[in-house]
Amino acid sequence: MTDVSDIRTRLRRALIGALKVRDASTVSALRSALSAIDNAEAVEPGPPQPAGNGSEHFAGAAAGLGTAEAERRRLTEADVAAIVRAEAAEREAAAREYERSGHAEQAARLRHGTQDLLAAAADEEPA
C-alpha cells in the first residue's frame, strides 16, 4: 500500500519526465493535480490579528520566528487519489466541451495529459 507522499512523489517524478520530453499536455495535467493537492492541504486563515500586535516597522506583522506559520492539513491516500480523480474528471469534461465545439485536437491533448496523470498516480507507464 502506498502513502500520500508516494503518490505525490510519483506525480513529481512524472512531471520531471514530461518536462524533459516537452510534453505540454502532460505537464499541464500533472501541475494542475499537484496544485490541487497543495490547495487541499491549505488551512483557513485564523482570525485577524488585533491592531498594534506586531512589528514597529510593519502594521499587523506577526512578531517572532514561525508565529505566522500554520500546519497544513494531512491528507490520506484516499484523499489524494480522490483529488487526482477529480482533476481527471474535470479535464475529461473540458475535453467533451472541446469536442462539442469542434476542437477535436484540443480534446485529444487534454485526454493525453489526463491518461498520463492517471498512469503516474497509479504508478503505471504513461501512454
What's the topology here?
Elements: H1 4-20, H2 24-41, H3 77-100, H4 104-121
Helix pairs in contact: 1-2, 1-4, 2-3, 2-4, 3-4
Explain the overall architecture:
With 127 residues, the chain is an all-alpha fold. It has a single domain, classed as Orthogonal Bundle (Hypothetical Protein Yqey, Chain: A, domain1), CATH 1.10.1510. Helix content is 61%, strand content 0%. The protein is built from 4 helices and no strands. Helix 2 (24-41) crosses helix 4 (104-121) and helix 3 packs antiparallel against helix 4. The radius of gyration is 19 Å and the shape is globular. 22% of the residues are buried. The mean pLDDT is 84.
- What is the CATH top level name? Mainly Alpha
Number of helical elements: 4
Low-confidence spans: pLDDT under 50, at least 5 residues? none
Helix content: 55-70%
CATH fold node name? Hypothetical Protein Yqey, Chain: A, domain1
For this entry, what is the oligomeric state of its chains?
single chain
Q: In whole angstroms, how far apart are the ends?
A: 24 Å
Number of strands: 0
Beta content: under 5%
Radius of gyration based on Cα positions: 19 Å
Which architecture would the CATH scheme give at its second level?
A: Orthogonal Bundle
Q: pLDDT average, as an integer? A: 84
* Structural class by sheet pairing and helices: mainly alpha
SSE string: HHHH
Number of domains: 1
